[in-house]
Amino acid sequence: MNLNMERTEAVSIIQKKRRVIMVVCLLTIIVLMALFITLKINNDKKGKVNAASVTKQHVNSSKDKKNNAAEKKHEEISTKSLMKQDGKKIVYLTFDDGPSDNVTPQILDILNKYNVKATFFVIGKNAEKYPDIIKKEFEEGNLIGNHSYSHQSMKSRPNYIYSSPENFVGEIEKCNSVLKSILGDDYNIKLVRFPGGAFPESSSPAYKGLEPVREAVKKDGYDFVDWNSETGDAEGSLVSVDKLYANYKKNSQGKSHLIILMHDAGAKKTTPEVLPLIIEDLKKQGYEFKTIE
Fold first, then answer.
1. Cβ(99)–Cβ(130) under 8 Å?
2. Of the candidates 214, 103, 111, 195, which has an alpha carbon nearest to the alpha carbon of residue 145?
3. What are the tens digits of pLDDT across the range 30-78?
4. Is 198 helix (H, G, I), strand (E, B) or coil?
5. How far apart are CA 285 and CA 281, in angstroms?
6. 241, 270 in Cβ contact below 8 A?
7. 103 and 8 part of one domain
8. Which of 34, 40, 176, 289 lies at 20 to 30 Å from 16 by C-alpha?
9. 3-state class of 127 per DSSP?
10. Which of 97, 226, 263, 264 is catalytic?
């Protein structure tokens, strides 16, 4: 009898221990789950804070970039600013009067061959004729500037585009509209080369007479750039390669910063022929090639 009672008590004790162990296990599981949920909530909060911080940093970075771009936009570009001595040898290859369907593609091929970029001052009416060439110039990393819409005046009025500041600004704006229609509204390069040049520091009466036009262009938000070297390909349709190269050498001598004037109008068939010689000579002298911006 006593033995049976002892056995019953022993079983009861074992069952109680099991229940206690089960309760302890359940409590442990509950505590662990509570800890897990707490940690997850905290991590989610940190993630949101970090995400907000990153977003804020991104917004601030974007604002800084926009502000920097705006500041850069208001830095005046001029022949004088590009000629500022800084101990470097820099060259800006520039081509006026294009695009054309025979000369401009040759020039682009040469630039690509030598991994060089250039600045093209295009005529609006030519851009309308060859929009695909304009796109190609732009897509290949070249800079596209404004050289007026018509360049040449109306036959009955030889100096039409310079007859008043309003006429010239109208020419510039018309060309700009053409370029935007081809390249999209993101095209915002407000860089002009005056047909024949602006040369504000010249004592020539012809250039002095352009002062109101220059002021109107600047007031309209445009910068303008001339040149300090040229090949002389404007002197005729088929100036010999030897003559073009000799002109370039003469006009570039002793200058660490060069803005070289050339033309890519359809009649300038020898310009693509001399261009490789000029690029190779400049590379040999250690010049860095840049676009005007």
1. yes
2. 195
3. 767 777 676 666 665 555 444 444 434 443 443 344 344 444 444 788 8
4. coil
5. 6
6. yes
7. no
8. 34
9. helix
10. 263
**Residue 117 φ then ψ, to 5°:** -110, 155
Catalytically annotated residue among 96, 97, 226, 233: 96
What's the domain count of the chain? Answer: 2
CB 79, CB 202: distance < 8 Å? no
Integer Cα distance of 244 and 53 in angstroms: 59
Same domain, residue pair 93 and 122: yes
CB atoms within 10 A of CB 210: 21
d(CA 192, CA 187): 14
96 noted as active-site residue = yes
Contact call for residues 261 and 96 (beta carbons, < 8 A):
yes
Tell me which residue range forms the domain holding 60: 1-75
pTM reported for the whole predicted model: 0.74
Q: 233 an active-site residue?
A: no
183-240 pLDDT, tens digit each: 998 899 999 999 999 999 999 988 999 999 999 999 999 999 999 999 999 998 899 9
